[in-house]
Automatic annotation (TrEMBL):
InterPro entries: AlkZ-like
GO terms assigned for molecular function: DNA binding
Pfam families named among the record's database cross-references: AlkZ-like
Species name: Streptomyces chartreusis
Name of the protein this chain belongs to: Winged helix DNA-binding domain-containing protein
DNA-binding recorded as keyword: yes
Keyword terms, alphabetized: DNA-binding
Length: 396
């Protein structure tokens, strides 16, 4: 890189990660909304991930379940909705308009077109009929407050109608109108997930009308989302940014220009930070360990991960589709995996070679985090949605 471009090495990137992702003892948050705000988004594909990710970052983990449920379903400071890469996340409510305009609109247009096309191929009613069903469904949902698809079908029976999806393909299936329509409405930002039918580990959700938000300019929203994320995760490469957002490279570059992102040098090549953030950061005052869940936003934050996750560990810690499982962290890098057994015990294994002097303090710190995790989870039992080799082995 040319003169004036600062190099940010692996050790400093790990220090930034620990501090900005609230994983050190001194940086833990006071409430779940603070965690989500710091990380921009919490992965929500596996419902338990949201709570486990919050619990790992709270000063008082005993507040995890009640605090997160209150933020999601009472105070509504957090919202579960579709976001980047057509994935379900939990966002701060104030960010919903930004996410919707920056990533949701383009996906929503494709999803609606796909639904209309699929129904037409199956000989189902036309788009006008679908619009009627949609309107009455939203009215029913507003009246009920929160409802399951089955409950909504009591008010709008046409939601029960079925059609063949992808006829003749290997993934052919029979879908109800409710299954596809509610998904489209979710991506369009008209409905969001409400309370689960069971406990915080349940993946069966009610639906609720989405909170109102202003319609933003797409380019301005992309710039704001990228600024928020780069503040937390910078430095990051263009490949990282394109992967995390799901945008085209032209959109990433436009957003980088709009926020005046600053160029730095990282081991992978050119990286970016927000303006004024290229200077050095202090190392965390104390060594730290963390047990993070599968799909945690830190583990899944970057596409290029060698600086915090050694390639030789990946076969044990990822499933066949690239989903990370539960991970053990020590001072900014992944060093092992963990699992919960049927009796509630939290078990873990170090996979990285830490060396003699480092291994003992790491083991002591990880054991303390395992006890901390078991303490706030209580009687809850969690099996990750996407299971990995080391998690299966440890939980057996």
């Amino acid at each position: 890189m040319g003169d004036g471009v600062r190099y940010i090495g692996t050790a400093e990137r790990r220090a930034r990660l620990g501090l900005r992702h609230r994983l050190t003892g001194a940086t833990r948050a006071q409430d779940p909304a603070g965690v989500a705000d710091s990380l921009v988004a919490l992965h929500g594909t596996d419902p338990a991930t949201v709570y486990l990710a919050v619990g790992a970052r709270l000063a008082d983990p005993a507040k995890t379940v009640a605090g997160t449920e209150r933020a999601l379903y009472e105070d509504r400071t957090l919202v579960r909705m579709h976001g980047m890469r057509h994935t379900v996340f939990v966002f701060p409510t104030e960010l919903t308009a930004v996410v919707h305009a920056s990533t949701g609109l383009a996906v929503a247009a494709r999803e609606r077109a796909s639904l209309v096309k699929s129904m037409a191929k199956a000989g189902a009613p036309d788009a006008a009929w679908l619009a009627e069903v949609e309107e009455s469904t939203l009215v029913a949902l507003a009246r009920r407050g929160q409802a399951t698809a089955a409950e909504l079908a009591q008010d709008e029976p046409r939601l029960r109608e079925r059609f063949v999806y992808a006829a003749g393909k290997s993934y052919e299936g029979v879908h109800t109108v409710s299954t596809r329509l509610l998904r489209v409405l979710g991506v369009e930002g008209k409905v969001v997930r409400g309370r689960p039918l069971g406990s915080w580990t349940s993946s069966q959700f009610r639906w609720a009308v989405a909170p109102e938000h202003p319609e933003l300019d797409a380019a301005a929203a992309q710039a704001e989302l990228l600024r928020r994320w780069l503040t937390v995760c910078g430095p990051a490469t263009e490949a990282d940014l394109k992967w995390w957002t799901g945008w085209k490279v032209t959109e990433v570059r436009r957003a980088l220009t709009a926020i005046g992102a600053q160029t730095v040098s990282v081991d992978e090549g050119t990286g970016y930070v927000v303006q004024g953030d290229a200077g050095p950061v202090d190392d965390p005052a104390e060594p730290w360990a963390a047990l993070l869940p599968g799909l945690d936003p830190t583990a899944m934050g970057w596409q290029q991960r060698d600086w915090y996750l050694a390639p030789e560990l990946r076969p044990s810690l990822f499933d066949g589709s690239g989903n990370v499982g539960p991970t053990v962290w020590w001072n900014g890098r992944v060093v092992g995996g963990w699992a919960q057994r049927g009796d509630g015990e939290i078990v873990w294994r170090l996979l990285a070679d830490l060396g003699g002097e480092e291994r003992q303090p790491a083991e002591t710190a990880v054991a303390a985090q395992a006890e901390r995790l078991r303490g706030w989870m209580g009687a809850a039992r969690v099996t990750p949605r996407f299971r990995t080799p080391v998690e299966k082995e440890l939980s057996a």
